[in-house]
Amino acid sequence: MEKKFCPYCGQRVTQKIIEGRNRRFCSSCNLPLYENPIPATCVVLLDDKNRVLLVKRNIEPKTGYWCLPGGFMETRETPEQGALRELKEETGLCGKIDMLLGVMTGSGRIYNTILMIGFLVRNFSGTPMAGDDAEEFGWFDPDRLPEIAFASHSAFIRIYYAAYSVPPT
Ligand SMILES: [Zn+2]
């Protein structure tokens, strides 16, 4: 979706070539309205059987599809805090970040580009239960994954099992 009005003064925005790109511009504020990716986080969380935790979405987009716990970052929080906050909200679990799995981009319905930051969590406490934005949760073996809502989430799961998963002994 495109912004039609200036978020600062409410005037209808125009287009202007700035720094070689056609950008939205507010002539009243004399300000280019830059479009930047929106950061979001997600968590690959494993149980002691090396199964990944997925939640079933009950909100748009992709209602009814499975995805990793996660969501958009809020201001004044770190990516790690955002990831663990979303984990807690959606599953009730308190987790500890092990490591960064990767950073990638995806596209969204409202935001043109989403910057998706994936973390690995192997240490957590609590009993999972479906919370905000989730109607159900489930543990999945890597060879029996359902269709995942977002390509970036699938990619983080693949990265984990390809590079960091320790086979059971
Ligand atoms: Zn303005």
What does this structure look like?
The protein has 169 residues and is α+β, with helices and mostly antiparallel strands. It folds into two domains: 1-34, Single Sheet (Ubiquitin Ligase Nedd4, Chain: W), CATH 2.20.70; 38-164, Nucleoside Triphosphate Pyrophosphohydrolase. Helices cover 16% and strands 38% of the residues. The protein is built from two helices and ten strands. It has helices spanning 79-91, 151-164, and strands spanning 14-18, 21-26, 31-33, 38-45, 52-57, 66-67, 70-72, 94-106, 114-125, 134-140. The strands form three sheets. Strands 7-4-9-8 form a four-stranded mixed sheet, with helices on both faces. Strand 1 and strand 2 form a beta hairpin. The longest helix is centred in the last third of the chain and has 14 residues, at 151-164. The model has no long low-confidence stretch (mean pLDDT 92). Bound molecules: zinc ion.
> Number of folding domains?
2
Characterize the largest beta sheet: strand count, sense, and whether it forms a barrel.
Answer: 4 strands, mixed
Tell me what portion of residues adopts beta-strand conformation: 35-45%
* Distinct bound molecules: zinc ion
CATH superfamily of the largest domain: Nucleoside Triphosphate Pyrophosphohydrolase
CATH second-level architecture of the largest domain: Alpha-Beta Complex
Number of helices: 2
- SSE order, one letter for each helix or strand: EEEEEEEHEEEH
Helix-strand category: alpha+beta
Strands, total number: 10
**Average pLDDT for all residues:** 92
Kindly provide the radius of gyration, computed on alpha-carbon positions and rounded to a whole number of angstroms. Answer: 19 Å
Low-pLDDT residue spans: none
**Overall shape:** elongated
